[in-house]
UniProtKB/TrEMBL annotation:
Residues 23-276 form the EAL domain. It comes from Anaerosporomusa subterranea. This is Diguanylate cyclase. It comes from the Bacteria. It is found in: Cell membrane.
Length: 277
């Protein structure tokens, strides 16, 4: 038994080392990803319940020469731990603003671009200045950009974050609370921050077809959000069935595979101007 235990330990240890090694390799690769132009954005459309596009969420992709396509769920945490999310996040914002500029040139400045912001970025001293500069340089209206923040970002430094977000809101940037319902969801956050949009996490969508209670729970979140004057986005909507239920309980916007996966910029453009193709 002892022998087996030891083998188990060795296996576990080897597994840990393997994981640590892989993380190190990926982080090193990520360090060069920007200059090697291995990063790019995909855009996932967000729709009203009647099928109009209201915006796109910018989602980062990494096509590494060494590792191939790496999932954001794998490399974003490494970018955060290493601090690389700071230069990468700046690049994401620049790219998103460039696309927003393109949309404005096509008289589609009412279609916003949603950009995910990491806690590390929000905490950085130069965050508000960087955002201000980037928006100005791109020549877009701040209202074309929406930031998506998760609750964990806010827990880390609530007062500091609130001040910064307030400044950005004052500029005209809008704010969405991402992955709502997964963390320490608290009314305090919702009421003390200049949030205009609430994104209900995909995990709820997976359950609303299971039964009445789950559906009522999401319905309550929607009602609560509406009471606070928020726009409600359901994310990760995959089926017509889910769509119908969300329409019934008063959801405002939909983002999910039922309409479109995240797509390249050129494809996103044809989504807005379907008559051109
Ligand atoms: P998120 O912000 O919650 O983004 C939504 C994720 O759900 C995306 O995964 C999207 O592709 C996926 N999704 C959308 N609709 C559906 C659906 O109907 N079904 C399923 N199964 N999935 C759906 P993705 O692109 O893999 O991104 C994962 C996470 O990585 C994001 O979660 C976000 O937290 C992070 N991320 C992505 N891009 C950035 C970025 O530019 N900056 C930062 N800080 N984080 C990013
Ligand atoms: Ca998001
Ligand atoms: Ca989300
Ligand atoms: Ca998520």
């Amino acid at each position: 038994a002892k022998q087996a235990g030891r083998n188990c330990w060795h296996f576990y240890e080897a597994f840990m080392l393997q994981d640590t090694y892989e993380k190190m390799m990926l982080t090193n690769g990520l360090r060069r990803a920007l200059e090697r132009e291995e990063l790019f954005l995909h855009y996932q459309p967000q729709f009203t319940m009647t099928g109009d596009i209201v915006g796109f969420e910018a989602l980062l992709r990494w096509n590494s020469a060494e590792f191939g396509l790496v999932s954001p769920d794998r490399f974003i945490p490494l970018a955060e731990q290493s601090g690389l999310i700071l230069p990468i996040g700046k690049w994401v914002l620049q790219e998103a603003c460039r696309f927003a500029r393109r949309l404005a040139d096509m008289e589609k400045e009412n279609v916003h671009i949603a950009v995910n912001i990491s806690p590390r970025q929000l905490i950085a001293d130069d965050f508000v200045d960087t955002v201000c500069d980037t928006i100005k340089k791109a020549g877009i209206k701040p209202g074309q950009i929406e930031f998506e923040i998760t609750e964990s970002a806010l827990i880390e430094s609530m007062e500091d974050s609130a001040i910064k977000l307030e400044e950005l809101r004052h500029m005209g940037v809008t704010l969405a609370l991402d992955d709502f319902g997964t963390g320490y969801s608290s009314l305090t956050y919702l009421m003390s921050l200049p949030v205009g949009t609430l994104k209900i996490d995909k995990s709820f969508m997976d359950k609303i077809t299971d039964g009445r209670e789950q559906l009522q729970l999401v319905g309550s979140i929607i009602n609560l959000g509406h009471t606070l004057g928020l726009v409600i986005v359901a994310e990760g909507v995959e089926t017509e069935n889910q769509l119908e239920l969300l329409l019934k309980i008063g959801c405002d916007h939909i983002q999910g595979y039922v309409f479109s996966q995240p797509i390249p910029e050129e494809e996103a453009i044809t989504f807005i101007f379907p008559r051109i193709i």
